[in-house]
Design a protein that fits this description.
This protein has 131 residues and is mainly α. Helix content is 40%, strand content 8%. The longest helix has 12 residues.
Length: 131
């Protein structure tokens, strides 16, 4: 479940930093991100934002059976508050990315994104965080 949620956040918000993924999920995602990267599902990508950004890979698309990210289901029905959350994170971005607690600062905003990846059951239960 942790891997699916993290993968969904990366898929919908890419390019996205680990810090942003942690803020959306409400937990640290370092171990899960390393697992997803080692499995070839996410990779570092170029971005103009501070910190290392990540995006999904062609293997991710292949495993979901889609040709492009445009084929992902619309996020709004699954997460009606997602746009509000993203707007709030963008507003707080300078503090969030570079604040006194650094890039590993945790927040309490929790968003369940697993529903957005109905076709990715193969990865369910494989999270490195023991979830």
């Amino acid at each position: 479940r942790a891997a699916m949620e993290t993968l969904a956040v990366v898929a919908y918000l890419q390019p996205v930093t680990r810090t942003r993924v942690s803020a959306v999920r409400g937990v640290k995602v370092d171990a899960v991100m390393r697992t997803l990267e080692s499995r070839g599902l996410v990779e570092p990508v170029e971005s103009d934002q501070p910190g290392q950004a990540y995006g999904t890979t062609s293997l991710f698309l292949e495993r979901l059976g889609i040709d492009s990210l445009d084929e992902l289901p619309d996020l709004a029905p699954h997460l009606p508050d997602a746009l509000d959350l993203e707007a709030e994170l963008a507003r707080l971005d300078p503090v969030h990315e570079n604040g006194p607690d650094g890039p590993d600062a945790e927040t309490t905003d929790v968003v369940d994104t697993a529903e957005a990846l109905d076709g990715a059951e193969a990865f369910e239960g494989e999270g490195a965080d023991g979830e």
